[in-house]
Fold:
Amino acid sequence: MKTVVGFGEIMLRLSPPGYHRFLQANSFDINFTGAEANVCVSLSRMGLKTECVTKLPLNDIADCVIATLRKFGVGTAHITHGGDRLGSYYLERGASQRPSKVIYDRKYSAISQAVREDFNWDTILEGAALLHVSGITPALGEELPAICRDAFAAAKRHRALVSCDLNYRKNLWTPQRAKEVMTELAGMVDIMIGNEEDAEKVLGIAPKHSDVIKGVLDPADYEQVASEIAGAYGCGAVAFTMRTSLSASDNLWKAMLYKDGKAYFSKEYRLHIVDRVGGGDSFSAGLIYAIVEGYEPQRAVDFAVAASCLKHATELDFNLSTLEEIAALMDGDGSGRVQR
Amino acid sequence: MKTVVGFGEIMLRLSPPGYHRFLQANSFDINFTGAEANVCVSLSRMGLKTECVTKLPLNDIADCVIATLRKFGVGTAHITHGGDRLGSYYLERGASQRPSKVIYDRKYSAISQAVREDFNWDTILEGAALLHVSGITPALGEELPAICRDAFAAAKRHRALVSCDLNYRKNLWTPQRAKEVMTELAGMVDIMIGNEEDAEKVLGIAPKHSDVIKGVLDPADYEQVASEIAGAYGCGAVAFTMRTSLSASDNLWKAMLYKDGKAYFSKEYRLHIVDRVGGGDSFSAGLIYAIVEGYEPQRAVDFAVAASCLKHATELDFNLSTLEEIAALMDGDGSGRVQR
Amino acid sequence: MKTVVGFGEIMLRLSPPGYHRFLQANSFDINFTGAEANVCVSLSRMGLKTECVTKLPLNDIADCVIATLRKFGVGTAHITHGGDRLGSYYLERGASQRPSKVIYDRKYSAISQAVREDFNWDTILEGAALLHVSGITPALGEELPAICRDAFAAAKRHRALVSCDLNYRKNLWTPQRAKEVMTELAGMVDIMIGNEEDAEKVLGIAPKHSDVIKGVLDPADYEQVASEIAGAYGCGAVAFTMRTSLSASDNLWKAMLYKDGKAYFSKEYRLHIVDRVGGGDSFSAGLIYAIVEGYEPQRAVDFAVAASCLKHATELDFNLSTLEEIAALMDGDGSGRVQR
Amino acid sequence: MKTVVGFGEIMLRLSPPGYHRFLQANSFDINFTGAEANVCVSLSRMGLKTECVTKLPLNDIADCVIATLRKFGVGTAHITHGGDRLGSYYLERGASQRPSKVIYDRKYSAISQAVREDFNWDTILEGAALLHVSGITPALGEELPAICRDAFAAAKRHRALVSCDLNYRKNLWTPQRAKEVMTELAGMVDIMIGNEEDAEKVLGIAPKHSDVIKGVLDPADYEQVASEIAGAYGCGAVAFTMRTSLSASDNLWKAMLYKDGKAYFSKEYRLHIVDRVGGGDSFSAGLIYAIVEGYEPQRAVDFAVAASCLKHATELDFNLSTLEEIAALMDGDGSGRVQR
Amino acid sequence: MKTVVGFGEIMLRLSPPGYHRFLQANSFDINFTGAEANVCVSLSRMGLKTECVTKLPLNDIADCVIATLRKFGVGTAHITHGGDRLGSYYLERGASQRPSKVIYDRKYSAISQAVREDFNWDTILEGAALLHVSGITPALGEELPAICRDAFAAAKRHRALVSCDLNYRKNLWTPQRAKEVMTELAGMVDIMIGNEEDAEKVLGIAPKHSDVIKGVLDPADYEQVASEIAGAYGCGAVAFTMRTSLSASDNLWKAMLYKDGKAYFSKEYRLHIVDRVGGGDSFSAGLIYAIVEGYEPQRAVDFAVAASCLKHATELDFNLSTLEEIAALMDGDGSGRVQR
Amino acid sequence: MKTVVGFGEIMLRLSPPGYHRFLQANSFDINFTGAEANVCVSLSRMGLKTECVTKLPLNDIADCVIATLRKFGVGTAHITHGGDRLGSYYLERGASQRPSKVIYDRKYSAISQAVREDFNWDTILEGAALLHVSGITPALGEELPAICRDAFAAAKRHRALVSCDLNYRKNLWTPQRAKEVMTELAGMVDIMIGNEEDAEKVLGIAPKHSDVIKGVLDPADYEQVASEIAGAYGCGAVAFTMRTSLSASDNLWKAMLYKDGKAYFSKEYRLHIVDRVGGGDSFSAGLIYAIVEGYEPQRAVDFAVAASCLKHATELDFNLSTLEEIAALMDGDGSGRVQR
Structure:
């Protein structure tokens, strides 16, 4: 069985139940999540072997992180321990015109204090098929760009593919610093994934006619941007998710995969959203699965979009959909009829 | 006051709260439900006298079943006891493109082990206006077809109407066995109810142009199928619900009642679904009420659809709507404005 | 900082969790709310100083009312104590075609037993910028019309504006009695607010072409009604909210502000509703804020509608939106995208 | 099967979850309860036929009351409707040295507004074995003493026993008024039940050496008081519960039954309390059951104390224990070992 | 690291929240549990490698079982699939004199339908240090005694110790059948564990002076019984837990380990019980750990009792205590002081 | 009305519901708490005016802190904003022999980054009667000792008393550093409060015969220690709480106040614990109230112990008891009988 390795931060998510605002909460629903952990859990549910690499403090809450990964079948053999704290984020779930709100408390987290010696990438990537790292990871701390470089280089040595979801986070770094770091790393990325804002902010390659805030998304733009990225960094595959936010409750959702000079567009779904967070990660997982399993490009993007479509209808950050469930949707049954 | 008798299985329903998947649950919301019990509860809320006949094991959980029926005004005088266990089912509530999922654990239930001697139908149906049995009941166990036959025959003797919701369940029997049993029973049914798939699977009478999965439903088809059923089995009334599943969250919903050679179509509602399960049963209850109370066919189907429309906006399997609430919707106020 | 004073009843709201009906509840979600308290909380969140004036019994539950107001920054210095009980209301949350249902238990409440001596309006309104009273308050008890008259007169003496949301409640009084009382009070009102039914029922001024139940709302009608009210009672500003109830789950929502002979219409939002109750109050709060802060009429009505739009997407009766959140929506971002 | 009729108020109980104080609650656990309803539910669980007579308003919340009684097998055929509201009470559950706190909101309830014409006692008591009324009922409203007199007199006509739990409530009337009313009614009572404070406050007959607050309870006192009551009012049986409150969490609990000139004492249990409310009512139910079923006095008081012992270990006001469960405890197994 | 293998049934546990009775529940707290799974989880938390062997149906609920085991670090590599259903049990938590109540619904479970071919014991026990099977397992179905024999024999071949907790269950078999099966298996058991009732019912060896129901437990009896068992079956170690049930809330708890002709008694703890279920399994786990790790007998029994003491203060069936936590208690700190 | 000012950290407390361990939680109950905030809330409930001074980050979660303080009547006028994050702590509630467990995540909190310029103590303490600071505050960050010195000096200038609860926290500093800082500050303290471990660890003054872990507490020791402290630092009052931890569920609790050369001991209570955290703070609040209000020493210590006794029976960290409730317990009613 092929192994996919994810590397990044895992945080405690704290969210008021239902659609309550922070000020109304007497309790927080919790789970443990992070861009790469989300990808690993999703791939594990699809049937791949996965390992999630991170750095955690040494306490009972970090034990909960590990138990969570294990529960969903994700390997934890290469997690390193140390540092001061587990990062967390507060999430207020939006609805209709009221947007979801995320307040990060991830500064000083164990992984942000990681050093290059914490990870032995040759051991970790032994036999791996793919290494996935989001654009959040190199932004987390001082040594993280170097650690990512180490990881990417080791992946190359072990003939593992490298996938990267650009995932720009303005709280973690400036566009300038992001560009500096990411443009260097991009040269080692085989599968580059982004949403409608990332490419511009991180790589400085902007769609020409689209206006994300206004909900104007021009498919041609995406092809152009993907083609530029593929050209500039030699990425074998470039994919973009294309979200039209009608409101916090209703979104349109599709994606494009650019491969070998050609753009493949998925169908577009209208999503009635249960939990928006982790939507992009579930797309990445779907795409990685499809590529690792050798799907044709059109089927790959269809699969990835169907997978993430189901994620948006699931509570919390993980996509728990199975291959069968994703295939059923991809193959046309979006009717949501009761399965008995 | 007229009495309606329902006969069938009552199960424990176990469902994760909200839109959580099974894997995410630390608790299950519970209730006790079954096709005929759902019909009885709904009729009792509308003001009819009802008796629910079933077989239950002898333990505290069976006591909960009886307490639940009593709570909603349903008679429990003819419930018989014995057998090994109460059947149950697990329900994962779907949303958007993610379908609801039902996992049955009803094998070996008390009622599946019932024998003809368990029920004295002449006593049970004394003075009844109508007997309702879904197509699930004869599929539950070996002697159940014979028990149903006994019940239907007794109903005839007591001049009670017999209504039957076809309700094909592929986990319980094969289409072949279903046809064998149901075509025999159908000859004793006065009011035959089905949804878009049942007629074909159970009675072998298919709509000509509709494609349920693709959401293509041709009204003319329904008239044709109903007319064939009425002809073949001498049913005085044949009704079909017509659901267009846009997604697990949004459905279109209407129905047709075929009576005296004529088809009556209700208006179509767009449903934003709270709980989909029990939707068909609430239609049956509405139709039974309307027929027992002598409504004109058009009003009957309008009433039944309005009733079930409210059910879809209610938690759990029971339709708790009152006559006034149904009438208000049927008579045109679907605005959902706050009632003070 | 300018102070706004609200005067009216605060009740305990009791509602089954989620979309459960009363019959299904084992617990009630609670909060403390009332038309004017809702306005005060919203204004306090926007940054104004507020005082909520009411009469409460002397017990631990009344302490909860005071703690709630304090929590959200509303002053409680002029609350008077006495009387038998705190009023309450039961709320069953609707969905789709099933309407929300309110059952009041507010009779014999402390405030309904209030007498003129309970409130020293000159002290209360010292330095106030505005006094807000809904049309519910004078309907609560025998001396309430006189108490409102005292309050309005004192407001005039202290050069505070008077705003009034007509808010007709058929359980509290007849249209005839409402007209009798309100037409007298209306002469002292500077800012008159109403929804699509109030003007006709309370002031006898009807829209000509609109049919609320059928969802037919003609904007021209609103201008005409507002102009008549402004003329008849000398109100400097008249505002109407215009709700099209597609269902209990989905509404269209906009408003009109009539000022200096001109009608200003907001844009219309499509709301996916989390909690409908308090929607009107959040509009009043938005409008009061805008007027007190000297917004231009168009901006005022845009702000008020944006504010109440966010309220509909928030649990419970209070609008907890901040200035920044309202401004973001008003200025065009209704996409509901995650705010990180 | 023998029928026991209870007459009194049923209220909505509202309590913060767990050991939270009112100020900490975001929700209230609810149930519907009253002294006589509690007795009826308990008797119904033991296997007797019961009818609960009360007056309820006409609304959805009153429907919940009826559904609750029905759920537990209590008849509701003689409930009358009308009046303004359902009474309620707020309960804060105590622990250790912190006492439970009850805040009543029962004024103006439907039953407090009842008139003699509301109840036809000859119909109600047709065939009844016993009528149970607590000392709360005559305290509820102006006509209630007369209604109780009517009921007691009809019981005599129908040869039904009359049982009364003195249950003095200082919020409802003064000791003086209580004495006035209760001393008259006492002459018609066959089974008089009280706790350690009632006899003195209601009938003016005080224990000589006990000090309730200090937890000093002298058994001899109880015999003396019971003997005086039996003598003064001709009650065939007089029973006292004897509670030593070590704290809100731990109590000692026993009782005495005085019959034919002799006092029978139960054993004493040490209770670790789950829910203290309804403890006295469960004793009354146990005693009524034992007397109606003809138990010997010693067995009767043992049964009643064992029954109420189980109640204290059960959530909410109802004692849901079955005959078997009570017998197991009475016959010596207080070990609380798991029953498989 | 040493591996311990457990073999037995895993069930879904369904329990009303808090101290509610079945009749009061709207939801059930859930978890997945079984005697041997409990032992494995506890050992895994202590740091051993474990594998839990069972048979599960093929559905989403069985996936939850596997995810639960994985979460707590238990291996699932040898679980076999097939059969009709997952067994379950309903648990009503007792308090004070009200006992906990268990209602089993485990008949027809997948494991009860297991056949010898389902398990390849030589593969499973490759390298195992110990095999643990409770006396429940051979009682589950027709082929289970033979399967256990296969397993025990393979353990011998692989030089793994065999431990067995007698755990008599009267619902599963008669004492006669239990004796028949267990006396044969006992000859292969190295570590025999029982509570105060098991030895007599299963092996026919009774304590001479103790009366469990009355709470009279004579330590000398235990030594005698253990010595007889060790003699008769050649068990190297025999251990008994000794529970004095003061009530469902308070127990005394100690144990004895008999080894090499000598009895070692632990100190006795007074337990205030959070969740009683799984208490015996946590003792078995503690003892197994101590023996596998080579603790001296006195330290072994002290460790096992301290471990199970902590279990009784933990929700649900699993003992989640770590080595450090158990050692702290064993070494004397039972003060329960806050650990910061 | 006299004002008491508290200065210290406020954190988010995250705890699994009921007695679940961290590994079992899907949600955390939350509240905002800190030693001095706890004191302020308690004093505010008793009727004093309070101000809580701290430093908070600028985000929605900090808004929740302020709303919480306001809710309970605590002033927030002098809270300063800035810094990276709100500190938090995870609490697993213990029971029986299983201790409660606290995991702090307070490093890098806003207040730990505070500088002397953040607080203008002359403004803050204008008119204050007392300043309360726990020994935690100077341990939080580099400049905190200096800030405390500033505050204490300003208190002296404004003739406000200074009270200090030693509250040693081993995670924050070493005993050596604690002694260094605290012995300097102690010279400015008027009321010194400690528990059984603090005096030794912080001031190096040890009880001679007591052994806290073993639960051996010798009253004479406390007098000696208090006398030494009073002598060394000139504290007018020295108080010690004396807890005997029988288990996490049951404690004995009393205290001593040393004043003018004499020791006053309270009675001892046996506590059945609901929530242990904040117990010491509630004693401090009680003592401060008593001293500020001029109670005699014996009454002061009785009041403080009664207050904290009620806290232990209350959920979460705040003592919400009123003067009346505390007086009732102090004056002898510890029976926990229902208050109606």
